Amino acid sequence: MSGKNSVFAIIGKSFKIYLRFIHKFFLYMTFPVIGQMIGFVLILLPTIYMQKTLPVLADKYTFFAEPTKALALVLIVIMPGLILMLSAFWKYLVAYSALNSMTQSALVSGKIYDFPAHNSFVTKNLSKFFLIWFFISILTILSINPILAIVCGIAFLFLVPVFQVFTFEQDKNAFGCIKRSFELVKDNFGRAVGLLSLLGLILWVLTEVAQWSGIKFIPHEKIFSDYANMILNIPFMQELNFKLSQLGELGINFQITSQMISEAILSAIIGILVWGYTLPLRSICWTLWYKSTTDSENRSKKSPKKRTTKQLDSEILRRANLDDDEEV
Q: How far is CA 189 from each of CA 1, 182, 286, rounded to the nearest angstrom?
């Protein structure tokens, strides 16, 4: 396809929508992204601390010498972080559908408003939503196997617009959404691969630039020195560095240092932030791809079969005309 439906046109229009409503998207994605990071930290640090503390407690109190009691203590300590992380992760999954609805809202009314209304498209179809993610999770687990990695990678490509189908074709069950996604990509394989490749390249460049800038200008060694030293003192890391030191006999001098770990921590944080906060951009791209593809598909049929597609709720459209569109 050429013109307004080309891959480059979709990318350009997506950036316009994303940048126009970037404050809304950042507001919407902050808890899903930052919440997961904070939750992970609240799990990791207490776990490392308890690894050192539990032997001391076991020596002083026989109560903590029992494995079940020690495990219970660890679970209690990490529970707040676990709850926060799971809650934020769930919001992140919901965003895969809600952001498509927000894009539709931006296209129809020129505004994005009422976040709970967009989230409700998931809560109204929870079983279907869970089944789709369950299928994706199975593929993710299978992809760990090197033999199946390529097959699963191809399957993931055909599943890219599955949440657009979930959002806009609500007459379909979970299997129907997956099947429809496969059909859309199969019939428009070149455009799907082109959009996925170009979007991936853009996000890779953004991530690399952000990570390079962060490492160069943020004093990561000072900020993360305590955490880096804590990680270096983990028995596994000490054993790994010992084995690496033995390679000196072969002329290979390499050690994992505090600076390397600090850079890795900062790079990971920046990477998560970039990919988390650009999820709206990816959703916009694939929503526009889906709409241009289905529009072209319907025009090419002499008697197109009527599809049950999701339209914006009349109440949402009414609220779009209000002066205050910041309600969330």
A: 12, 10, 13
